[in-house]
Amino acid sequence: MKQPDATLNLTSDINVIGSVVDFTYKWSVNAGLSDEDAVRITQAVDELVTDIILFAYPEQKKPGNFEVHFSSDFSSIQIIIREYGEPFDPNRHRYNSERAIEQGFFKGAGFELIKFLTDEFIFENRGAKGKYFQLIKYIVAEHEPDILPEKSPEIEKAQLNHTEFNVASIDAHDAEDIAKLVYRSYGYSYPKEDMYYPKRIAMAVLRKKKIGVIARINDGRPAGYFAVLESTDSNVGEVGEAVVAPPYRRKGLFKKMMEMLIENARESKLQGIFGKAIGIHNISQKVNQRYGFKTTGLFLADFPAVHLYELMEPYPQPVSEIIDFLLLKDYKNQDIYLPDRYSEILQDIYGEIQAKPKFQVADKNLRYSPITGIDMKIDYSQKNSLLLVRSAGRNILEKIEEKFSYLKDKDLNIIYIDLPLSDPITPTLVETLREMGFVFSGLMPHFHKRKDYLRMQYLRCKLDLSLIITHSKMSKRILSIIKKELKNETENKG
Amino acid sequence: MKQKIRGDFAHIRLTRDFNLLTVRELERSYKDCERFEFDLSSCRFIDSEAIIYIHRLIHSGIEVRLLQAPPILKECLRILELEHVWEENKNLNMVD
Questions:
Q1: Among A271, A312, A454, B26, which residue has the fewest nearby CB atoms (within 10 Å)?
Q2: Are the beta carbons of A234 and A450 closer than 8 angstroms?
Q3: B71 and A42 in contact by Cβ < 8 A?
Q4: What is the DSSP string of B57-74?
Q5: Topology of domain A6-138, CATH
């Protein structure tokens, strides 16, 4: 979904196998996979590329083409392969071990290996747009990190009474201190597991996937950490990690770090930043509002129930989050097509973030995109998923329903869908999505490819909405819209 | 790919992964060979094309020795449910 870190454009010739395989292995190791897992994903790529070379372009005199895209984040690597050869139905090429042993007939063996050598393997036949294969491998640390605290937080709290802190931008050398800070503040309850692995943190900093600040007391001991993460395929960052160790809380540290972080973000290429404030309490929401963030949305059941160490009682249901957004630079103007149903709320959100797009009304004769493009992202650990509509062709609803059916079979709490507000087709989709059970989520400014998106969401778990704590007027208003739509949904089903 | 004769066996040291390209080269170069000894110490993996190639060799009566096969080979044989068949085949000898 993000811009790939690397792309290879290749011809379907047997001689490219060695090169693509060597690149895959070295790139996977550099992205953080263990040697064993790098070999597994490399063999999976070898199997797929071999199948393409052998079977995708059988009748052509000249070899065909295919692409391999490499992307990674803190916890996984994703390899997408696209080819444009003969149509193919994997269900007709299933491996059968008995047939292989008895008759020496090994059809489907390569696909069978790919399924087991990867953690996720998705195949989609995209018609004229070719075939799409996504291979995912999760990054797993070989050893538990050694980040146990030297002293308990209580002892530190009793011994230290610092009020002065040095706040500086982070570099890779701060990684271990950041992991220790997270442990000291949350035990092992922090929802982002990556934060317990110094190596992952260091790699994210080196690869400029996070901009952060760290606060230290005079003897160099870390006291707090704050970071903006590259989290979308656009120039918008997420204030995704915020930690102040218990002994240093209520000393103005949060304010110092937030100010420096916003300053650093302003100097970067980012157009805006957003924070996901958990709806378990209003502390983070209040802080966001104090620094000029404005609520633009609410994500229901964004991650499973947690018990955040020291901070609060166990929470009985998946955690919903309030999206607060801060525009850092002048709003990049866009033509925006608002759906009738959400026109008022979206205009008010635009007003709050001080963005003035050109609101347009679509022509009666809608111009569909020649092709439909929908990306799908599944986060099994957080039990959420996203359908991202890139372009809407005439079969857009059919494609949405197809992917929605696929996701409904998975163990997920929520399915989000992002619709481009710059596309006049979007307003025509909203009512059908409502009929399917999707409800409002919010405005996602500049969220994908620098364009504004409407997010809707489909809840797949039981959620007591009265337990969601909201602070800003807008978050309360968005929650009331969601409650109303979900209530209608229940009544209609009843 | 480097080769020498060791006793009755053609000893072949593979210098890259054992995959389609290697299989094609072996098929071209060793049509009539009846005893292979593959040194796999430089291979990261042995892919399905190579597994099929070895499977067909040993089932056609050709003796094959695999030296220092990468650990992922056993994983792949397990996935393809070929592990026992290979273990029981007298024409195959796997040496760590």
A1: A312
A2: yes
A3: no
A4: HHHTT-EEEEES--THHH
A5: Heat Shock Protein 90 (3.30.565)
Which residues in chain A touch residue B80, judged by CB atoms under 8 angstroms apart? 95, 97, 100, 109, 112-113
State how far residue A44 is from chain B, nearest Cα, in angstroms: 9
Exposure on the CB side of residue A458, measured as CA atoms within 13 A: 23
A55–B contact, CB cutoff 8 A? no
Q: Is A145 left (phi over 0), alpha (psi -120 to 50) or beta?
A: beta
SS3 A376: strand
Architecture of domain A143-270: 3-Layer(aba) Sandwich (3.40)
Which residues in chain B touch residue A97, judged by CB atoms under 8 angstroms apart? 80-82
Assign A354 to helix, strand or coil: coil
Q: Which two tokens stand for residue A135?
A: 């291979």
Residue A266 parent element (H or E)? helix A253-267
Chain A: give the shortest CA distance to residue B3, in Å.
20
Domains of chain B, first to last: 2-95 (3.30.750.24)
What pLDDT is attached to residue B55?
A: 95
- What CATH number has the domain spanning A335-493? 3.40.630
CA A334 to chain centroid: 24
Residue predicted with more confidence, A244 or A28: A28
Which run of H or E residues covers position A327?
strand A319-327
- Residues of chain A within CATH 3.40.630.30 domain(s) are 143-270
How confident is the model over A119-164, as pLDDT tens digits? 888 888 877 778 899 999 987 654 444 444 444 444 455 445 556 7
B48 Cα to chain A: minimum distance (Å): 6
Q: Report the alpha-carbon distance of residue B29 to residue A287 in Å, rounded.
A: 72
Cα distance from A72 to chain B (closest Cα, Å)?
A: 22
Q: B72 to chain A: which residues are within 8 Å by CB? A: 36, 39-40, 43
Range(s) for CATH 3.30.565.10 in chain A? 6-138
A328-356 residue pLDDT tens: 988 888 999 999 999 999 999 999 999 99
